[in-house]
Design brief:
Layout lengths: L8 H19 L6 H41 L13 H37 L3 E6 L4 E4 L1 H7 L11 H4 L3 H13 L3 E9 L2 E13 L5 E10 L1 H37 L5 H32 L8 E4 H18 L3 E6 L4 E4 L1 H17 L6 E8 L3 E8 L21 H6 L6 H11 L3 E7 L3 E9 L2
Parallel strand pairs: 7-9
Antiparallel strand pairs: 1-2, 1-5, 3-4, 4-5, 6-8, 9-10, 10-12, 11-12
Bound molecules: adenosine-5'-triphosphate and magnesium ion.
């Protein structure tokens, strides 16, 4: 009976009570027997109440339960179920609600999986990503982007892009993408610590299915390697041209003098021709070095591996350096492990030792010391060239293997150097899968260690 006091049944109970009382009042003048009238009306009222109770339990109560289940599902509780089989209509309703819950649950699992996959891709891509809506609010920034600026997503999500994105180029890119409604590309550089990194930023407008602009995605990729290569290429061309211009100018100048002036002085003529010869020799050396580098860099470069007897190899090299050492009054000594042999490209290994000894002697003042040792470990042949020369500043050491890099340009040019020697050494070591290390102290000396695999 408690159910009859619940909404909406209570309204009907009150209505029937009022109708019963009115019927009683209307019938009262006709029926004299009050007790009989009251009893009939009471029985009537009770019958109606019983009917209402039946109606409530059969229809309204399950409907209320159905509504409660649907609101649970609406809240995301897809495990909520509704079971009523008392009549066809309710059993169909319960079947529909339960299958709706099951479908929604499957959809939500699938959607969650897709969201997770998407966010894994977004977070693990090597490009920075920023998603901005059509009002300029940021909705998403990925991990790569955060790592560039060392902040968290809370610093960006929900903010206007021009309030939180520091670089001016970001603002320009978003505005251009919105204005022109097509992909826009820009470049910028950014420091991470002391490293200067170069980035390309692409603003991609995003449209909805009605082709209305809904926002933009900023894609930021690191182009530092490409930029460095471009700079290196530019430097390389500039350096080669510069290196060639000096001897060519000199050759041209002396050749002109020889042609124009009627030199009767045989001595001067010979001197000029000697200069022309030396300069062309220098050019030839430069071109040979460039060709060596280019051959080493070719993809299909093949090493000619021979069995090398270290003692034999050094017999060809050491005498000429002994002469050079004598001229400079250098104390040149060497220590070679007995019976040392390994497999490598003989001519290239010779070139390594020649270039290193050449440097050691060129950059060590008269009366200094130069020492060559060749020993072996289990895996490697260790070539070490030490000198007591001018040494190299710490700042210059990381760049020493770059082409044309010279610490003291004027001095190195005096030695006839082109700045390609160590670049060639490094390439030869690389193609042999070896390693090269250099330590140096200014005015104390330099040690170069080359390790070549014995194979
Ligand atoms: N043992 C050394 N001591 C001091 N400085 C050195 C030494 N070896 C190399 N360097 C420095 O490194 C620079 C690069 O050396 P690298 O051998 O590549 O070129 P280079 O000697 O100038 O010319 P080349 O192409 O004829 O060898 C030199 O110009 C010199 O400044
Ligand atoms: Mg050199």
């Amino acid at each position: 009976m408690k159910d009859l006091l619940k909404k909406p049944v209570i309204n009907y109970v009150i209505l029937f009570l009022v109708v019963t009382l009115l019927t009683g009042l209307l019938l009262f003048p006709i029926v004299n027997n009050v007790i009989l009238l009251s009893s009939i009306l009471l029985i009537n009222f009770i019958i109606i109440l019983v009917f209402l109770q039946f109606h409530f339990t059969n229809y309204l109560k399950p409907l209320k339960k159905a509504i409660k289940t649907l609101s649970e599902i609406n809240k995301g509780n897809y495990r909520a179920r509704f079971h009523y089989t008392s009549n066809n209509l309710l059993s169909e309703l319960s079947y529909k609600i339960n299958s709706l819950a099951r479908n929604l649950s499957e959809y939500s699992i699938q959607e969650k999986m897709q969201r997770e996959q998407l966010s894994t891709i977004i977070d693990n891509t090597d490009n920075g990503l920023v998603l901005i809506d059509d009002k300029g609010y940021i909705h998403l920034v990925n991990r790569k982007f955060l790592s560039m600026y060392g902040r968290t997503s809370k610093d960006y999500n929900g903010y206007l892009y021009y309030d939180v994105l520091e670089e001016e180029v970001f603002h320009d890119t978003v505005q251009q993408a919105f204005l022109y409604e097509k992909n826009v590309k820009n470049e910028f550089s950014h420091y991470i610590g002391i490293d200067k990194l170069y980035y390309e930023i692409v603003g991609v407008p995003v449209f909805n299915e009605k082709n209305r602009l809904k926002g933009a995605v900023l894609v930021i990729h690191d182009i530092t390697e490409m930029k460095k290569l471009e700079l290196m290429r530019r430097d390389f061309v500039a350096n080669v041209s510069h290196e060639l211009r000096t001897p060519i100018t000199s050759i041209r100048g002396f050749a002109e003098t020889l042609l124009e002036d009627d030199l009767n002085n045989k001595e001067a003529e010979k001197e000029f021709i000697k200069i022309i010869y030396n300069e062309s020799d220098r050019m030839q050396l430069l071109i040979e070095d460039l060709l060596t580098l280019s051959r080493l860099e070719q993809e299909n470069f093949q090493l000619v591996l021979n069995k090398i007897e270290v003692n034999d190899l050094l017999k060809d090299i050491i005498p000429s350096f002994q002469i050079k050492a004598k001229e400079k009054e250098l104390d040149f000594t060497h220590s070679i492990e007995n019976n040392l042999h390994f497999k490598a490209d003989k001519e290239k290994v010779k070139q390594i030792i020649i270039n290193l000894l050449d440097n050691a002697m060129n950059y060590t003042p008269d009366k200094g010391k130069v020492f060559l040792s060749v020993t072996s470990t289990e895996e490697y042949v260790h070539i070490k060239v030490s000198d007591t020369g001018m040494g190299i500043e710490k700042n210059d050491l990381p760049r020493i293997f770059e082409r044309f890099y010279r610490v003291d340009k004027a001095r190195s040019r005096n030695t006839g150097g082109t700045g390609l020697g160590l670049a060639i050494v490094k390439h030869i070591v690389d193609v042999h899968d070896g390693k090269i290390e250099m330590d140096s102290e200014v005015n104390k000396g330099t040690n170069v260690h080359v390790y070549l695999p014995k194979k």
